[in-house]
From TrEMBL:
Subcellular location: Nucleus
Domain of life: Eukaryota
PROSITE patterns: BHLH (PS50888)
Name the UniProt record assigns to this protein: Basic helix-loop-helix (BHLH) DNA-binding superfamily protein
MF annotations from Gene Ontology: DNA binding
GO cellular component, one term: nucleus
UniProt keyword list: DNA-binding, Nucleus, Transcription, Transcription regulation
Residue ranges annotated for the BHLH domain, each copy included: 47-96
Pfam families: bHLH-TF_ACT-like_plant, HLH
GO biological process: regulation of primary metabolic process
Length: 243
């Protein structure tokens, strides 16, 4: 079966005209065969007429096949005759062209909206690129002021002996900015003979445990050194010790 080109309604109009011409040609061929049979060259004309009839039958068969194929493509057929089928096909093609135009218009609208959205996002990104810098500057300034007023709040300080030459220092502080760093710097400034140290961070507090090489007699002295170092670390702020 030959392929059907349904891009233009003119194709189906020409197909309708071919169907009508086939009917006229068939009748003309029948009359000419009758006239030619009475002439001297009747036999030759009769052969020609038979060939024409065969050719017309082939053309009719091809046209019928195309009509059947067309009925399979067109979703709505009002009548089953050839003329109605071709008219329905023309209307269907026109509707397809209209829908195609609508879809193309919607695509162009979406593309233009996408370009405008990109421009808006670009402007927003430019504005957002400068805002975080200001926020970071303000936060940095706030942290700088807060660091000057922040202090190490001691919740619990214990100094106990373990054996003859080992002292355990257990210090619990509130968890604040740079508390771990400050505690490490403070104990390093005391020049203690540290055997091992451990820091455990909780949700709102920090526990620092230090094993120091020292005699039992030095236990009270170590406690006084640590309290003095914490007071010095907090500056002029009042430090509360809970034992």
């Amino acid at each position: 079966m030959e392929s059907i080109n349904v891009e233009s309604p003119k194709y189906w109009e020409s197909l309708l005209l071919q169907a009508e011409e086939l009917d006229c040609d068939y009748l003309n061929g029948a009359f000419s065969a009758y006239d030619d049979s009475s002439s001297r060259a009747g036999r030759q004309s009769s052969m020609t007429t038979k060939n024409n009839i065969v050719s017309e039958r082939n053309r009719r068969r091809k046209l019928t096949e195309k009509i059947y194929a067309l009925r399979l493509v067109v979703p709505k057929i009002t009548k089953m005759d050839k003329e109605s089928t071709i008219k329905d096909a023309i209307e269907y093609i026109q509707k397809l062209h209209e829908e195609e135009g609508k879809i193309q218009a919607e695509i162009s609208d979406l593309e233009s909206a996408g370009r405008s959205s990109k421009c808006t996002n670009f402007q927003f990104d430019q504005e957002a690129a400068f805002k975080p810098k200001r926020i970071r500057t303000q936060e940095h300034f706030h942290d700088f002021q807060g660091s000057s007023s922040s202090r190490t709040e001691v919740i619990e300080l214990r100094v106990s002996s373990m054996g003859e030459n080992t002292v355990i220092i257990s210090l619990i502080c509130s968890k604040r900015t740079d508390t771990m760093v400050k505690l490490n710097e403070m104990f390093e400034s005391l020049n203690l003979k540290i055997i091992s140290a451990n820091i455990t961070a909780f949700s709102d507090s920090i526990l620092k445990t230090i094993f120091v090489q020292a005699d039992e007699k030095e236990k009270d002295l170590l406690k006084i050194k640590i309290e003095t170092a914490i007071v010095a670390l907090n500056g002029s702020h009042k430090t509360n010790f809970n034992f």
